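Researcher: Here's a chain I'd like modeled. Treat it as a single chain, no partners, no ligands.
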Amino acid sequence: MTHSGELSPEDAREFGRVVGAGTPQNVGSFRFWFSDQRWEWSDEVALMHGYEPGSVRPTTELLLEHKHPDDRELVAATLARSIEEAEPFCSRHRIIDTKGRIRHVIVVGDQMLEDDAVVGTAGYYVDVTEALDAQRQETLSDALPELYEARAVIEQAKGALMLVYGIGAEQAFRVLTWRSQETNTKLRALAQELVRQVSELGGGTAEMRTRFDHLLLTVHEDVDTA
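Model: Modeled as a single isolated chain. Structure tokens:
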């Protein structure tokens, strides 16, 4: 751990090991070729779906079967749009593994290029299922106290992830530390650049801004003043 409150790649791996205790893996990768609709997934993604690594070949039909019924249509539409437009995508949804357990995942896909042509999408599954019980929470607090004293920019980055993905603070921090590890980038530097570029996106959709305007003007009515 650095004294500035940043998380080194080594500390990120240790953090992932601690928060992932008792679960398979938190993060796995995938690749998908548009031409022949061919999927590849890492051992971690196979385990998220309840399969032993190498025991099954992933297909679009198999992946959609594992989506939660309430999320399946949206995920299928997101995938179809990615293929049609050859564009990156991001989806937060639920999957049901072979034992019937529900997992909450974020799937991030970017363009996969060959000779400057988009031939598919490649990216990551991030398992953000709440899995921290009281004992493991205490272990985290004792072992890595500086993780909860992150600088303001890290809190801002967490807030952006929480708003966009609809996840909690702990899950947002896990996503940030994952990207720090995967890219060998200091956590604070990564968060700072994320915040900078998010501010350049111009805000959310008009519908989301309208809903937030209403919330901002009425939230005081729900504050407990007792």
